[in-house]
Each structure stands twice: as C-alpha cells, then as structure tokens.
Amino acid sequence: MAQSGLGHLHGVQGVAGSNPALPTKLVKGGKMTDYQGQERREHPRISVNFVVNYRIQELPDSYDLSQTKDVSQGGALLTTNKLFVEGTYLTMNLRIPFVPQKIKIKGKVINSREVVRDLVYETSVRFVGLDENFFKKLGNFIKENLK
C-alpha cells in the first residue's frame, strides 16, 4: 500500500482515493446526467468561494490556506491539499464578505476524495457548534444568493 507521506499525521488519509464521494452525476449509456434522486441535505447549498485556513484540531500549528467550493448553514465543501479520514475534526477560519472579522468554526470531516492525483482533494465538512448569530447571518446570505 502506498502511503502519501502524511499518514503519520492524525486525520490525514494515507491511501489516496480510498474514501470516494457519493456521485452527484450518474453515467447512463456513457453520458453524464444530473442526479435525479431526492435531496438529502438539511440546508440549501450555494456555490461560493470564501477564503479559509484550516488545520487538524489536534495540531495547533498546521494551518493550510484554501477556499470553499460551496457552503450551507450545515457545512462546506473545501478544496484541500490532503485526503482526510472521515471523522477528523478541523478548526477553520473563514473570511466572509458580510462579517468584518474572521469567523472561527469547528467542523467534522464527512468525506474526502482525490480530485487531482496527489495534489487536490475535495473535503466535505459538517459545522459543529456554530454560533447561532452567525448561523442566521449565513442563512440569510444563502437565501439572498439563491434568488
């Protein structure tokens, strides 16, 4: 089994691609089609790029800089440079246009999958213990941008 060299770090997946995401598109007759099943997310999601720096909760000096691909009141999809183990807790600092200061958020990795071999990963994170005031502001921002 090939290790990525990061397997010794808590929460970093050692084998690339071992935890694939559920597809949002289906292949029918060789063509990609949009997923027609029931939406299972609790909160609406929008495509938006917010600057985020993140770290594994137990590693205080290990921040990486990235961005979101999409966001909901319940979580976010991040572009990361590591494949994370499901259940890993991350500490994130978000820069969001409607809030002047950085927002510190904790999240739990729900899924992480390789997009570009050994380089780019998409990591789904569920927010944990979100501040109620920020939760409402984020919800309003999402509603406005869904119109």
What order do the helices and strands come in, and which of them pair?
Layout: E1 25-28, E2 31-34, E3 45-47, E4 51-56, E5 64-72, E6 75-80, E7 89-95, E8 103-116, E9 120-128, H1 132-146
Antiparallel strand pairs: 1-2, 3-5, 4-5, 4-7, 5-6, 6-9, 7-8, 8-9
What does this structure look like?
The longest helix is centred in the last third of the chain and has 15 residues, at 132-146. It is globular, with a radius of gyration of 16 Å. β1 (25-28) and β2 (31-34) form a beta hairpin. The protein has 1 helix and 9 strands. It has one helix spanning 132-146; strands at 25-28, 31-34, 45-47, 51-56, 64-72, 75-80, 89-95, 103-116, 120-128. It has a single domain (43-146), classed as Thrombin, subunit H (Beta Barrel), CATH 2.40.10. 21% of the residues are buried. The protein is mainly beta. The chain is 10% helix and 42% strand. The strands form 2 sheets. A 6-stranded antiparallel barrel has the order 4-5-6-9-8-7.
Termini separation (Å)?
A: 48 Å
For the record, the count of structural domains works out to 1
Low-pLDDT stretches: 1-10, 12-33
By CATH, the superfamily comes out as predicted glycosyltransferase like domains
Strand content: 35-45%
CATH fold-level assignment: Thrombin, subunit H
| The first-level CATH class name | Mainly Beta
Structural class: mainly beta
Order of helices and strands: EEEEEEEEEH
Name the helicity range: 10-25%
Taken from the alpha-carbon principal axes, the silhouette is globular
Number of E-type strands: 9
**Tally the helices: what do you get?**
1
